[in-house]
Amino acid sequence: MNDAVLRLHELRRSFTQGGETIHVLRGVDLSVAPGEIVALLGPSGSGKSTLLQAVGLLEGGFEGSIMLGGEEAARLNQDGRTRVRRDMLGFVYQFHHLLPDFDATENVVLPQLVKGASQAEARARATGLLTALGLGHRLTHRPSQLSGGEQQRVAVARALANRPPLVLADEPTGNLDEATADVVLGEFLSLVRGEGSAAIVATHNERLAARMDRVVRLHEGRLA
């Protein structure tokens, strides 16, 4: 996989708690091809979020290699990490983390403006993504005026706004009821595939994981 959008090699993470060392990641190797959607399966506490935090360059303390788009991201300074997150990555979390004082369109416009898009380009892109997710009639609604499923759809649109090569989703439907989760996940997968992005989706749900291109399991700090 020479053209892998992501390649992890011997990724490790340990914590010290109460004088005891806890090994969360014990040498993780993973490659993700462009456009591939990978389910990261494991029970709560298995280290799925820790792995996504490593790939997302959201905290330090990791050992090993994190190659993003052919660049060794683990060795970058803070400015370099910010650049890679902006240009390479999109994030979807279990909770939407939308800006409460911004409407749906504005929440999707903002990351594009940060990257340098014009207002017109950003609004057109936001409108297109939100409409594709069935929110064409909710463009000017604030998060408090949207249902849980609608809020998460806005979060998906925001994650894809800058056309990232890789989307990281941490239990993206974990806060939704089963029926809504099925619909939102289907829309997420359809949109990610349509955009040509790759994705890693952390979940503990076997049924949802089966809808993705490949399933890897995190067990005792290693991937199987």
UniProtKB/TrEMBL annotation:
Pfam families registered for this protein in UniProt: ABC_tran (PF00005)
Keywords for this protein: ATP-binding, Hydrolase, Lipoprotein, Nucleotide-binding, Transport
The UniProt record lists the keyword DNA damage: no
Enzyme class, UniProt record, top EC level: hydrolase
PROSITE patterns, per the entry: ABC_TRANSPORTER_1, ABC_TRANSPORTER_2
Record GO terms (molecular function): ATP binding; hydrolase activity
SUPFAM superfamilies (UniProt xref): P-loop containing nucleoside triphosphate hydrolases
InterPro entries given in the database record: AAA+_ATPase (IPR003593), ABC_transporter-like_ATP-bd (IPR003439), ABC_transporter-like_CS (IPR017871), ABC_transpr_LolD-like (IPR015854), MacB-like_ATP-bd (IPR017911), P-loop_NTPase (IPR027417)
Positions of the ABC transporter domain: 6-224
Enzyme Commission identifier(s): 3.6.3.-
PANTHER family: IMPORT ATP-BINDING PROTEIN (PTHR24220), LIPOPROTEIN-RELEASING SYSTEM ATP-BINDING PROTEIN LOLD (PTHR24220:SF689)
Family of the protein in this entry: Belongs to the ABC transporter superfamily.
Protein name: Lipoprotein-releasing system ATP-binding protein
Organism this protein belongs to: Sphingomonas jejuensis
